[in-house]
Automatic annotation (TrEMBL):
It comes from Adonisia turfae CCMR0082. Residues 38-416 form the Aminotransferase class V domain. SUPFAM superfamilies: PLP-dependent transferases. PANTHER family: CYSTEINE DESULFURASE (PTHR43586), PYRIDOXAL PHOSPHATE (PLP)-DEPENDENT ASPARTATE AMINOTRANSFERASE SUPERFAMILY (PTHR43586:SF21). This is Cysteine desulfurase-like protein. Signal peptide: none annotated. Pfam families: Aminotran_5.
């Protein structure tokens, strides 16, 4: 694999947890006398106080629909523009290439329908075994009009995408590759620069699901050269919303499904109905939080994009270290199977999202036992249905997922490992 996907971290890119954790009021919660360990980040992260404040401030001082002739509406227009600018800095693109929606799934269905208008029977689309179903089902739906959808396999022993299988399925009829930046179930990080180039070589577009990756590392859509990329702010410390990046030429040429009075100028033509304006205020605050973190770890940065770069570089570096500790600890426990990459020399190709199964307890029981101790994890398939089916665990309750983000600590990892060790002693 090419190493170009990995963001290098400087030796000084350490995370100031004594500054980070107080930003998140939820982290102060206690359950049965112990602090709650939020190891459920892949399902949605906790949010900084400033995000709540921004949303409340909007509802008090700016609550109105857009494009009106009065002050609260004008403030709403400013909130929308500010959020678009913040997301542009977060993703590395132009603000008019940012589209907002209720969630990634809804945005993906909208784009898939628009792309489907241009496809012919027997055109081909590729999806993968690693993806969340939100980047699979919208493309499978195009089979109704004769589109052929193929699934790219993985190496089940480490959950890495099978590049030979991908290459064998790419051909002159491939119109689009839908692929995740990183698996939301087992943490595998795809080599997107190599994969995107392979797809572009046969003339295919690439639709990237970065929902899971966005909390863990820098995204640069121009460097990736992807055609579309989607993410969800509630997975990176913001409110529940969806965000789509699309290359300007695609957003201008494709025809969206929209109401007639709506603007035909990008990006507005892709935003159906009234947006979640208070959510947009929260999105800007979330990105400002990341930028402030970046300014702390790299005081020399001169703009918000540079600050985001510094923050996400430090977060990526910290995640690698936490992941190594977690995997090493899990591998020492009897009766535990770890899915995905475990080799230390390949740790750069995964995120600190680790899926396991235990011999004595099904995932649902494990999650319940841990939850009663104030250790919050997820169980099931996490909508990564292709993957749990491919691993043969879908009909056995799926997986237990441990998801670390940058506010998690080594103490929380050790607490989890101790709880799992105790669990192995019980029947």
């Amino acid at each position: 694999m090419s190493q170009s996907v990995v963001v290098p971290a400087s030796d000084t890119a350490t995370l100031p947890l004594d500054w980070i954790r107080p930003q998140f009021p939820a982290l102060a919660q206690v359950m049965n006398g112990s602090p709650i360990a939020f190891l459920d980040g892949p399902g949605g992260t906790q949010v900084p106080q400033r995000v709540m404040d921004a949303m409340t401030d909007y509802l008090i001082h700016s609550n109105a629909n857009a494009h009106g002739a009065f002050i609260t509406s004008q403030r709403t227009d400013e909130v929308i523009a500010a959020a678009r600018g913040a997301l542009a800095d977060f993703l590395g693109c132009n603000p008019n290439e940012i589209v907002f929606g209720p969630n990634m799934t809804t945005l993906t269905f909208a784009i898939s329908r628009a792309i489907g208008r241009e496809l012919l029977p027997e055109d081909e689309i590729l999806v993968t075994c690693l993806d969340h179903d939100a980047n699979v089902a919208p493309w499978l739906a195009l089979r109704e009009q004769g589109i052929i959808v193929h699934t790219v396999d993985i190496h089940p022993e480490n959950c890495i995408l099978d590049l030979k299988d991908l290459i064998s399925k790419l051909n002159h009829r491939t119109r689009l590759l839908a692929i995740t930046y990183a698996s939301n179930a087992v943490g595998t990080l795809n080599d997107l620069p190599t994969i995107i180039q392979l797809a572009h070589d046969v003339g295919a577009w690439v639709y990237v699901d970065a929902v899971h990756y966005a909390a863990h590392g820098l995204i640069d859509v121009q460097q990736l050269d992807c055609d579309f990329l989607v993410c969800s702010p509630y997975k990176f410390f913001g409110p529940h919303m969806g965000v789509l990046y699309g290359k300007r030429e695609h957003l201008e040429r494709l025809h969206p499904y929209k109401v007639r009075p709506a603007s035909d100028v990008i990006p507005d033509r892709w935003e159906t109905g009234t947006q979640n304006h208070e959510g947009l205020a929260g999105v800007t605050a979330a990105i400002e939080y990341l930028a402030d973190l970046g300014r702390l770890v790299s005081p020399q940065v001169s703009n918000r994009r540079g600050a985001v770069f510094a923050a996400m570089t430090a977060i990526r570096h910290s995640g690698e270290k936490l992941c190594q500790v977690l995997i090493e600890g899990l591998l020492q426990l009897p009766g535990i199977t770890v899915y995905g990459i475990t080799a230390p020399e390949q740790i750069l190709w995964r995120l600190p999202t680790v899926a396991i199964r235990m011999t004595k307890h099904p995932p649902a029981a494990m999650a319940k036992i841990l939850g009663e101790q104030g250790i919050f994890t997820w169980h099931g398939n996490f909508y990564a249905l292709n993957l749990t089916q491919r691993l043969g665990v879908e009909d056995q309750g799926g997986l237990l997922r441990i998801g670390l983000v940058h506010y998690n600590t080594l103490a929380e990892i050790n607490r989890l490992l101790a709880a799992l060790a105790d669990m192995d002693l019980t029947r």
